[in-house]
Amino acid sequence: MPLSDEQRRFARQLRQQLTDAEIRLWYHLRGRRLHGFRFRRQHPIGPYFADYVCLEVGLIVELDGGQHNTCKGLDHDAIRSDVLAARGFEVLRFWNNDVLQNTHGVLEAISRRLHEMREPSPGLRAKTLTRVARKTLTRPAADLSRKRER
């Protein structure tokens, strides 16, 4: 679904008004600097704009400031994460202070998750293959005959 002009303006505004933590993290994520993974900044996903997203593996990195450390902020973040998860994304959250004081640790955590998501464990791969096989085996005969006719 194409973005409205208002959404485009809002995304542009978000990209222009970065916090110090966002500037520091973006320096390390842009231009495929983190192990060749491509990140987008302030990318729209459904009703939200992800701070950073790697579409290749479906990982969103969110940076949270103090306003997120309230009951209302935590509830909003939980709902947001659920909506994004329903769209197939995993959300990693870091506090701005963590990025500023422990950049290496944050990058290490992101890197570790990226590699885990790119190369799923053998058990996960087997479950996925089983699910695909089960769908193929349980497909109605009418669907199979239509495929053969084409």
Characterise the protein shown here.
This protein is α+β, with helices and mostly antiparallel strands and 150 residues long. The chain has two domains: 5-119, VSR Endonuclease (Endonuclease, Chain A, 3-Layer(aba) Sandwich), CATH 3.40.960; 121-150. Helices cover 57% and strands 17% of the residues. The chain has a four-stranded mixed sheet with strand order 1-2-3-4, with helices on both faces. The longest helix has 16 residues, at 71-86. It is globular and about 35 Å long.
List keywords for this structure.
single chain; disordered C terminus; 4 strands; 150 residues; 7 helices; 4-stranded mixed sheet; alpha+beta; Endonuclease, Chain A; 57% helix
Q: Tell me, what's the shape?
A: globular
* Strand percentage: 15-25%
Mean pLDDT over all positions: 79
| CATH C-level of the largest domain | Alpha Beta
Secondary-structure topology with pairs:
Blueprint (H helix, E strand, L loop, with lengths): L4 H12 L3 H10 L10 E6 L2 E7 L4 E6 L6 H16 L3 E6 H6 L1 H16 L3 H16 L3 H9 L1
Parallel strand pairs: 3-4
Antiparallel strand pairs: 1-2, 2-3
Short description:
The protein is 57% helix and 17% strand.
